[in-house]
């Protein structure tokens, strides 16, 4: 009985997809080449904008969590506070090579 149920669900889904596909093809024919290219470009732009905003939101959330964890100190790309570095030292005469 389960197989008959899922067979009928699959058949209904296939019929629905075929109808929607036929409608999409008809709309594409009505729009023509320029309309289809314009639609594709605007859709790609919307997807890129959404992805950019999502990436920024995730980056801000990670940065906020990292700053909270490090007590407000700046963090590097891995979310860790940078290790303290020694101040640069001037070269001494013993490190210079002698010229012939």
Verbal overview:
With 100 residues, the protein is mostly helical. It has one domain (2-73). 68% of the residues lie in helices and 0% in strands. The protein is built from one helix and no strands. It has one helix spanning 2-69. The longest helix is centred in the middle third of the chain and has 68 residues, at 2-69. The protein is elongated. 0% of the residues are buried.
Helicity level, as a percent range? 55-70%
Q: What is the tally of helical segments?
A: 1
| Rg estimate, integer Å | 30 Å
Q: Profile the largest sheet.
A: none
What class do helices, strands and sheet pairing give?
A: mainly alpha
Write a short abstract of this structure.
This protein has 100 residues and is mainly α.
């Amino acid at each position: 009985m389960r197989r008959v149920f899922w067979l009928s669900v699959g058949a209904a889904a296939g019929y629905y997809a075929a109808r929607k596909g036929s409608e999409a093809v008809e709309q594409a024919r009505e729009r023509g080449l320029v309309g289809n290219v314009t639609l594709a470009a605007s859709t790609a732009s919307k997807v890129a904008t959404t992805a950019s905003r999502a990436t920024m939101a995730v980056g801000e959330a990670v940065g906020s969590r990292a700053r909270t964890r490090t007590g407000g100190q700046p963090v590097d790309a891995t979310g860790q506070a940078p290790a303290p570095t020694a101040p640069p030292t001037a070269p001494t005469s013993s490190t210079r090579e002698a010229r012939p």
